[in-house]
Amino acid sequence: MAEAVPQSFRRPLLALILLSPVIAEMLSGSAPPVEWLLPTTPLLLIWLYGSGVLVMRETAVRWNLGWAGILVLGAAYGIIEEGLAVKSFFDPAWMDLGTLAWYGRWLDTNWVWAIWLTMYHAIISIAVPIFLVDTIWPQTRGRRLTSDRGYAVAVLILAAATGFMFLFLTSYVPSAAHVLAAVLAVAFLVWFAKTHADRLWLKLPAGAPPRPAAYAVAGFSFFGGSFLLYAGGPYLGGHPAVTFLEGGLVLLGAMLLLRRTTGDPTWARHRYAFVGGTTGFLIALAFFLEAAGWTGMAVVGAAFAILLIRIPRRLLPEVRAESGTHRPADR
Predict the structure, then answer these.
(1) To pair with 141 at 20 to 30 A between CA atoms, which of 173, 177, 218, 264?
(2) Residue 206 — very low, low, confident or very high, per pLDDT cuts 50/70/90?
(3) How many angstroms separate the CA atoms of 3 and 64, rounded?
């Protein structure tokens, strides 16, 4: 028998749907606040991001996945958005590419951009909103936010958003082989998330973590470093293979550090500090964008800074309540 969804879960459900596009697009400056005044911007972004984060979160809950599985599902979402919906993985004229329109382009695919954006969406569009909702509303952790019918509707909405944007967002049409490859990559990642991600994650070496402050610095450095390495690939790498190696080493370092915080709820503050540091890079970026003339970015950055500061007041009682327990979300 399917678990009933409490009425009180409506607020975290709405927060999850809104947090994903707001963090990934507004806070990052990809779609600054003034663009949200146009009705089409929030409609399209909430349609795609909101359904995407909900589908990935509900899939993870139904399959009892930990954070490794969630991140792999997030990577699948990244391919759905960038490879299938907006087609930026393949379109050499995509507006945000810059030098990555030629650096790392091979077989009509923007490989450096593709790897970077897949990781970006896995973390920022999927994992961070889920983590924040689970932290603000700990009673929802590991619980379904939708019924089985609602889950099926969310999958259909995500499919409809992907198809609509594929057909109408830009005139670029990738080859059938590219579309098939993207679909197969999504299918592989979904399978891998269900069958292998959490098990392989637990095989990584673990140990006592350093202080939470170190995790905040590490989160900021990881995301900021990845941003610089991929965006500055022609200058900091010189060859796509070098860029992939640099980015892979930074990612491995973050994974090994986070592995130390799994399996013990008393280390929840360490994980929160890492997420805060990661999001903190976008907050800092928002103030720089405001200084560069992007109106409203400072307000968005300040609002998220206040949110991140206030959340730990909810987190500490949850750590006490969970001591001696183990939940899937702690893996």
Answers:
(1) 218
(2) confident
(3) 14
